[in-house]
Amino acid sequence: MIAEKLQEVEEKIEAAKARRTPQITEDVQLVAVTKNHDVAAMREAIDAGVTDIGENRIQEAMGKYETLGRQVTWHLIGHLQTNKAKQAVKYFDLIHSVDTPHLARALDKEAGKIGKVQDVLVQVNLAKEESKSGVYEEDLQPLLQLVDELPHLRLCGLMCIAPNYDDTEKCRPLFRRMREIFDGIKDIPFQTANIKYLSMGMSHDYGIAIEEGANIVRVGTAIFGPRQY
Ligand SMILES: *Cc1c(COP(=O)(O)O)cnc(C)c1O
């Protein structure tokens, strides 16, 4: 079941890639979002070819990490509280949700303590939804500069979550704008940043996100079915 759904998602990813403008040639990394799904489901997905796992809560991810370990790449996609920075740098390969100077500094400090350079994305709240985290576009530049300067963080790109419109086509202008911002920051003369990832698109809108230039998509429900809370 999971294997079949995964294959459908992979086919849709390929189809969406084919619809992009020719300037966008990057590969698209699928992050399978496993929050609220158990290790058995995760194993099924891994056996079917999943290499990258997305979790949004540290506590939940820790238990799963103890069982599955380093056979997959771990992505932290959810909002992160500063007091969890220590665990976050211990478990996660890429943290998608840096959105304040305070959090950036906390992650830098904890990464330094374990001798790690932590790969991070900065989360942008383009639609300025109060219910969502992320930095506003007008505050993005100084945060990018700060993350670039912190010695134990490596800035790798941007992440965004589109509003949950009934009509997913409404997300398109927002994804397009994110890609413009992403292409724009590639030209900034950073010190250590390596701008390569644009993480956007979830189960209901990843096709549109890819068409508009996402190169990481975070897909849960379309692979694992609805979550039980
Ligand atoms: C849960 C979650 C996803 C996956 O959502 P689905 O609709 O289940 O695909 C993607 N990104 C973030 C930040 C999430 O919290």
Automatic annotation (TrEMBL):
Q: Which GO terms describe its molecular function?
A: pyridoxal phosphate binding
Question: Where would you find the membrane-spanning parts of this chain?
Answer: none
Chain segments annotated as coiled-coil in the UniProt record: none
Q: What keywords appear on the UniProt entry? A: Pyridoxal phosphate
Q: Which residues carry this modification: N6-(pyridoxal phosphate)lysine?
A: 35
> By its UniProt entry, which InterPro entries does this protein fall under?
Ala_racemase_N, PLP-binding_barrel, PyrdxlP_homeostasis
What range(s) does the Alanine racemase N-terminal domain occupy? 16-227
Tagged with keyword Kinase: no
**UniProt family annotation:** Belongs to the pyridoxal phosphate-binding protein YggS/PROSC family.
Q: What is this protein's name?
A: Pyridoxal phosphate homeostasis protein
